[in-house]
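A quick aside before the break. I want you to see a complete sequence-to-structure record at least once, exactly as it would be stored in a machine-readable document. Don't worry about memorizing anything.
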Amino acid sequence: MENRNDDEMEIDLLKLAKALWRRAWAIMLAAVIFGGAALTYTAIFVTPLYKAEALMYVNSSNISVGGAKVSISQGELTAAQSLIKTYAVILSTRTTLNDVIEQSGVSYTYEELKEMISAQSVNSTEVFSITVTSPSPREAEMLANTIARILPEKISAIVEGSSARIVDYAVEPAKKASPSLSKNALIGAMLGFVLACGIVVIMELTDEQIHDSDYLIQTYDIPVLAVIPDLLSATSTNDYYQSAEQRMKKTR
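That is the input. The structure line, written in tokens, reads:
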């Protein structure tokens, strides 16, 4: 395990593996305890969160000739996709979110509501999603739909020739988005497993007790002149006397 010859240290992987195997029950017990603790903590102390999503379409041109719509070029489609970032900035402004707070009647501050909202493009198309995360599924739906109603007016007032239309209203989420009990329990179990293995390895590497004659030979490279048998052990006593008898026979 440790080799002090020439002030060098060598790690015997086989001995470490045996040490881990001997204490496998303790390692598994630590994994179960940590996994159960993570599961209990998540179930009791972590507030579940729900996500509601509304979809909107970005239009970069409202031009028409004689009632006939003009076809939009690929360049205009690319421009529409780039406008999503601009719309996300408009969405997160204090003016827009204060109007959302006023119309929805929630008690959040501007900073709190901003942390609950995210907006991004859907698969690099002209459609973008508005996602609201809240501890209440009904509140998440209501805020997402309030934003979807307010945002088009804000966009048309700021960005000329552009508009946003509602593609799909948000619905009340039936399942929580986070936390995941199974995921957190697995993370806790893995943490307990790794921590227990680390403790076993450290104990094995720092163990300087002399367990047998092989340890002296391998560690210090010195011969063993004598061994004191464990007379309390029947096996050790029998081995001692059998070895003594064999030595006596050799001397005759």
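Two observations worth writing down. The chain has three domains: 1-46+179-209, 50-168, 222-252. The chain has nine helices and six strands. We'll return to this after the break.
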